[in-house]
Amino acid sequence: MILPIVAYGDPVLKKKGTEISKDYPNLSELLDNMFETMYNAMGVGLAAPQIGLPIRLFLVDTSPFAEDDNLSEEERKALKDFKKVFINATILKEEGDKWAFNEGCLSIPDVREDVFRQPKITIAYYDENFKEHTQTFEGLIARVIQHEYDHIEGVLFTDKLSSFKKRLIKSKLANISKGKINAEYRMRFPNQKKKR
Questions:
Q1: Does any domain span residue 110?
Q2: Are 148 and 47 in contact (CB under 8 A)?
Q3: Is 88 helix (H, G, I), strand (E, B) or coil?
Q4: In sequence order, what are the residues at sequence separation of 6 or more whose Cβ sits closer than 8 angstroms to the Cβ of residue 65?
């Protein structure tokens, strides 16, 4: 089932997510719905707060990036085959010199900005079967994970922008929170006036 994506301005996007247990109600159905919602919106990642749930859960599928001809064959293969669920994740380490990449977010349609992140991370998490993992990721995969991880920490990519950049996009963000945007997918807006 395709779920509405929560728009910028909703308080759930600023909440730090709570951990869940393997007994979380209808977890496999929730994951199926989240993947379906993400693919419908042409996303490469989706976090539970983006569908209104303040829990530490996100999923990633970087296969759309594998189409980029500027990447090496090895990078394209890694991106094409990368699809994972992250439950109760904790980033243990971020390494390397920060690099810029143009990011967007399904909760903030039509806003894209360069965000600086470190290229290598080590993260501990549980998968969909509640098997524990500690893994290191690099490059675009690390970046997508960092972006989604920020969501479960109550952080949006726009929070990482300079005050000058924030001022430039302020009215766009206000319009998104009011529902004054034409997204290509279902959304839920916090400040949309109810139609009588």
A1: yes
A2: yes
A3: strand
A4: 44, 71, 79, 140
Instruction: Report the pLDDT value the prediction gives residue 192, as an integer from 0 to 100.
Output: 62
Tens digits of residue pLDDT in 23-63: 999 999 999 999 999 999 999 999 999 999 999 999 999 99
State the chain's mean pLDDT as an integer: 94
93-114 residue pLDDT tens:
999 999 999 999 999 999 999 9
From residue 178, alpha-carbon distances to 57, 154, 194 in Å are 27, 20, 11
Spell 99-109 as b/e; 16+ CB within 10 A means b: eeeebbbbbbb
Domain total of the chain: 1
Residue 82 lies in a domain: yes
193: pLDDT confidence band, cut at 50, 70 and 90?
low
Residue 73 designated active-site: no
Residue 193 lies in a domain: no
Q: Which of 36, 148, 153, 184 is catalytic?
A: 148
Asked if residue 35 is part of any domain, the answer here is yes
Contacts of residue 177, Cβ cutoff 8 Å, sequence gap at least 6: 7, 8, 9, 10, 189, 190, 191
Domain with 177, as residue range(s), is 5-188
Q: Fill in the amino acid letter for 87.
A: I
Neighbours of 113 (CB within 10 A): 20
Tell me, what CATH number does 97's domain have?
A: 3.90.45.10
